[in-house]
Amino acid sequence: xxxxxLEKIIALQKKTPHIRNLCILAHVDHGKTTxxxxxxxxxxxxxxxxxxxxxxxxxxxxxxIRGITMKSSAISLHYTTGNEYLIxxxxxxxxxxxxxxxxxxxxxxxGAIVVVDAVExxxxxxxxxxxxxxxxxxxxxxxxxxxxxxxxxxxLTSQEAYTHLQKILEQVNAVTGSLFTSKxxxxxxxxxxxxxxxxxxxxxxxxxxxxxxxxxxTDDSDLYFSPDRGNVVFASAIDGWGxxxxxxxxxxxxxxxxxxxxLLKTLWGDFYLNAKAKKIMKGAQSKGKKPLFVQLxxxxxxxxxxxxxxxxxxxxxxxxxxxLGLKVMSRDLRHSDPKVLLSAICSQWLPVSxxxxxxxxxxxxxxxxxxxxxxxxxxxxxxxxxxxxxEQTQELKKAFLDxxxxxxxxxxxxxxxxxxxxxxxxPQNKQRPLTQEEIAxxxxxxxxxxxxxxxxxxxxxxPGSADTGGMEVxxxxxxxxxxxxxxxxxxxxxxxxxxxxxxxxxxxRKGQKVFVLGPKYDPSLALRALPEGCSAAxxxxxxxxxxxxxxxSLYLLMGRELEELDEVxxxxxxxxxxxxxxxxxxxxxxxxxxxxxxxxxxFEATPIVRVAVEPKHPSEMPKLVRGMRLLNQADPCAxxxxxxxxxxxxxxxxxxxxxxxxxxxxxxxxxxxxxxxxPIIPFRETVIRPPKVDMVNEDMGKQQKVAVIxxxxxxxxxxxxxxxxxxxxxxxxxxPNKMATVGVRAIPxxxxxxxxxxxxxxxxxxxxxxxxxxxxxxTLDINQKILENIQEFKVKLESNLQGRxxxxxxxxxxxxxxxxxxxxxLLNSVEGYRRPSVWQCLEREKETEKAEIRxxxxxxxxxxxxxxxxxxMCEEPLMGVCFSVETWDMKLSAPLAQQDSIDEDSQTxxxxxxxxxxxxxxxxxxxxxxxSNRSRSGAEAAGSSVDCYGPFSGQLIAAMKEAxxxxxxxxxxxxxxAMYTCEIMATAxxxxxVYAVLSKREGxxxxxxxxxxxxxxxxxxxxxxxxxxxxxxxxxxxxxxxxSPQLVFSHWEVISSDPFWVPTTExxxxxxxxxxxxxxxxxxxxxxxxxxxxxxxxEKIVEHAEKQRTLSKNK
Amino acid sequence: xxxFTPTNQIRLTNVAxxxxxxGGKRFEIACYKNKVMSWRSGAEKDLxxxxxxxxxxxxxxxxxxxxxxxxxxxxxxxDLTEICKQILAKGELQVSDRERQSQLEQMFRDIATxxxxxxxxxxxxxxxxxxxxxxxxxxxxxxVKANKSTKQQALEVIKQLQQSIQIQRAxxxxxxxxxxxxxxxxxxxxxxxxxTVENEDFDEQLEMVCLIDPGCFRDIDELIRCETKGxxxxxxFSTLSEDV
Lengths: 1115, 244
Description:
Chain A: This is Elongation factor-like 1. By secondary structure, chain A is an alpha+beta fold. In chain A, 39% of the residues lie in helices and 19% in strands.
């Protein structure tokens, strides 16, 4: 079997019915890459001796080191059995972290080889890949691998092995069966729903209950794996053998004179050979006979292993070899390692590649046989039905089904991922081996230079030239090496991206102009925008998510190597170069604008592990940013975000995936040192109503405070001079120049109100904008819809703010904060102060009574904004707090007021902003003249009084901010933590461990239910974001991958414990002791944040004075 | 090699002395190391964890106890605990190693936080993270000075950092209204100080919204105040980087 030439493959690419696109899927370490090695070896690309050891398709260094595959890679193989076939093989990773790579591989294939370990049986990932294959509608075949382990490791007898294999087959079929039933049930449910709706429409009362659930009607027999169907191969890829029932059936039909079709049916199953009657009988098990499979197949293999590996019986081996008609080299026979001999025999007797490839060619469909169902599924994005697509698009279905390589057929290509390739690996830049003359020439040059240098050396130091003779040869070599290294370095080491793609229709040519359609592209939009019958070569108006480009270069993917091609006909897997600017991760390429984008890949694993990435040297930030952009493009599953805080967050599917992404960043994309750390976790601060019970659930009111000492000390330190706090939490504060006094009270907002404010940020922003425009006597047009929404929002607020305390509160809202649209409210409770409400956009039509705005209104609001932006606990934003301004006295001398009011000029000068509708012209002139008057009078005053505390508006802002902070502290304060909702799918046996992990991380289970038709449980829980770092990994480890969580941010939740809590009552003293050094979750979070920000943390430097090291170092 | 015998050398171990002069006399108390600062900040509430003994000395290392008369004349009380508390609160002390270390660390982080708050990466217009700033500060070998305010040092750091990384003060958004007469003249003077003009309106008076470097605020404020003789007004919207 020689190396297949490129020309041969190109010729084969044109014969669509003889192409097989397939991928190898399995659980991690079940031998996918080893099997791929065997298949690659059959084509002479690698030596068959190295097959299984080399792992040819694992081309990355870390793949080789870790021994797991991390990316899917393709290779084209040539196989001949009467017909010539081209096999495009894609090897995929088995580790759960890389299941996105599996998705990209599965999409491009028509069939899949599912590999199962004969010892381990069906594993979690096996189930996952079976489901993936199922969802993509591709046909699987089964390879039961590592049968040698049954013999050598487990030491099973052939009979036991048979039952074991049967069990595995049953397991696999059970998974397929459950997929099938769930699909049927789903369809059934849909049908029922439709029927029901039609029933209600028709009004017909009688319903027919059908218990059969449709399972019986649907034929599922062709789904299952069974050796007698020929879709199962038993193999040991490491030893290089594999067989299907067919091979043995043929073999024995000649030997025993039984028809091969009979043997085929009976070789697997409960049949035995009755030697006397020369008949094959049923019921081997009940009669205690050896089944046919054991007798004819397994026993032979077992005896072979026995002879070669266990007993090393030379004579017997020779006998076997001659009887099988094989030729084994004497070198192999003499080899000390029996495995070498074994594989030498087996690879000739039952070559695994032969078994697998013939099965593949027979059982898996060619690209031309693509099913209409699959086409529709590929073409209809999301929930859209196929029928709803534009007509031209529906016509393309025919092109899919025809799969013709005609000139006229539209080109349809799907790109499932982009992968980065070193420019060195590209065929254009590949170094050609040097010819003999070139080498000679270079050597000559090198020698000359060497001689020159030596001459120079010698003239410098004449003695000591004794050992230069020996040096010469090595020096020469070094020089040669250096030369070649240099040429390599000189190559532009930019990363090139190659698109991993498949042609579904037409012929893709180099230099062709095509449309690149993004995943969000909508053909109906484009069809409207583009002229009829246009092509990508024309100048076209821009359509969203569509780009035109020229195909730069086409590659044949040969594992780690690429071969350049000029054209690729339909049905082939290929690489496309030069697309990095048009394609982010996946795309559809077509010559027809009516082509719909393919359905997005369904990823089994969503990215959940978040880390913040930083360069080691801050000056290398731009490199990191560039690198992360490249990584985002190269990895289908990694996500890259830049947070508002400036963090660069990398989200990956798991720890191993993360490791790979970081390695990629370090060595390929950014080429700098980076460090990954825990991302910053946000918190919120809030106040609550005073709790009624203490920490030991005793009623608070009745008990006496014991720890008076604590109390007194705190009271003193908390409030500086000039701040008065009364028992109800009203804080009164005067500005430093004693001109103004504000009284503020903090009130917790009901939870619903907070949520309402959170949800309606956009509306609040619009309202705020309106008021801002109103200040300036302009009007902002808000459309009716938004006005209605605002009205609705207001009504909802009113309904939620019930009770005496909140009477008329909605009308009195002064501002929202922080940033003018947050979940906190500033309430105007100043007696006798009426200001225009925030709702003025609603009252535009109505003539409201005139409301005046006091001077410095803005300062109070700004103070509130600042206070809500960073709270007193750990400078995090506030949430769900209402600050009510109860008193606001100004003792201003007139000129001072005016001087400072200049700052507020724009606001104060236009007191009648509500009347903007009527006679705005005259009004404006009035207003502006008034303002100029004021400015003049203010200017006179400015010279006379200068305040040593700075401008008064600033003082008021500061005073207001401080007042809010103290008012906040006067109430029971709490920290709010961001929560994830976490959905965990787990099997029943690992349920307990899931709970253990959850409770260790302060999670709370909301509900748990069984998924219909499976043995999976779905657990819904909430988990603080602060505890989520490493959660996914831990839960996977603890449950051996049987449970996988999905985390989504859901809401903010108040942490019930008080960060400032100390035991105060007698009961608490009894329970917690005087120091209460049991861990306080809220305090822990608060201190962590404070420490990160460099704020003061109330912590003793040394806990116990006596336990210090008492001697200084030098004594 | 010096010979020393335990007998002729008195060494205080694990003792921090707090001194205070009052009424012309010097008083000292013996405290544990690394504890006095905690007491002063309120983190330590147990007096026994701070004081070695509640005796008041004239000289701790010589073991000379203060006389009762001196105490009552200086402090007006004979309650030793009360006197100790007074000395603890107001006396001078040698800051011990770990106290100093934690104080400097805290200041260092505080400076980094201030820098991160005030600055952005001019390329992305996003702030840098605190940890990145900390690393950059270490790279330029910035040392914290305990007697300067953190804010002051932060401003210095920003200047130094600009040489090693791409960093810029977040812009401040200003809005000023100038009388028409001065408008034209002032605009020319303001031009070099302004980064970008977002909005300009010139009819009866000049109204401008613009972004400036926060360092120029003082200058602009001064300029407007002097040139217009108080008639021009200046209003700042926000300095926070997220608005930029």
